[in-house]
Amino acid sequence: MNSLKALLFYSRSLFPLILIAAAVTSPALAQTARRNPAADYYNRGNDRQKERDLDGAIEDYTFAITFEPKFALAWNNRGVVRYLKGDLDEAIKDFGKAVELKPDYAEAWNNRGNARFDKGDPDGAIADFDKAIALNDHYAQAYHSRANARHAKKDLDGAISDYTRAIDLNERFALSWHNRGSARQEKGELREAVADFDQAIKLDPNRAITWAYRGLTLLMQGKGAEAERDFARCLELNPDLKATLSARINEVKQQRRAIQ
Question: pTM, whole model, 2 decimals?
Answer without folding.
Answer: 0.86
